[in-house]
């Protein structure tokens, strides 16, 4: 299992605490220091069953600079979104947990974190 975190994020710290409390075996990826490639993002999105705009943090300053809120949210625009997330990893929602069984979740709640432990 791998968890993508920003150590300054309280939701990430909570997810790590829960994984530790449950004795989970996982690796940490500080995705701002080790950003995912576009291909990695595509794989994670497929596992999540989401589109890039679904995991974009539109409240970030860089999102406003890019005008992300006005970007089209349709299949034809997917590449543009993936490029933006790969170039600006701060835009990626966190924490993202990829489980060994092929599932993935955005672990913002204890319930979502626990769902990859079952």
TrEMBL record:
Keywords: Oxidoreductase
Pfam families: ArsC
PROSITE patterns the UniProt entry points to: ARSC (PS51353)
InterPro entries referenced in this protein's UniProt entry, alphabetically: Arsenate_reductase (IPR006659), Arsenate_reductase-like (IPR006660), Thioredoxin-like_sf (IPR036249)
Database matches in Gene3D superfamilies: Glutaredoxin (3.40.30.10)
Family: Belongs to the ArsC family.
The protein's name: Arsenate reductase family protein
UniProt source species: Actinoallomurus spadix
Organism lineage: Bacteria, Bacillati, Actinomycetota, Actinomycetes, Streptosporangiales
């Amino acid at each position: 299992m791998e968890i993508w975190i920003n150590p300054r994020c309280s939701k990430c710290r909570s997810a790590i605490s829960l994984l530790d409390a449950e004795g989970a075996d996982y690796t940490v990826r500080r995705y701002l220091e080790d950003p995912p490639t576009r291909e990695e993002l595509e794989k994670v999105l497929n596992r999540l069953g989401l589109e890039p705009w679904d995991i974009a943090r539109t409240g970030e300053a860089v999102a406003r600079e890019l005008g992300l809120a006005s970007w089209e949210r349709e299949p034809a625009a997917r590449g543009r979104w993936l490029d933006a997330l790969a170039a600006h990893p701060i835009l990626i929602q966190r924490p993202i947990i990829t489980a060994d069984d092929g599932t993935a979740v955005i672990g913002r709640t204890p319930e979502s974190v626990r769902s990859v432990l079952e």
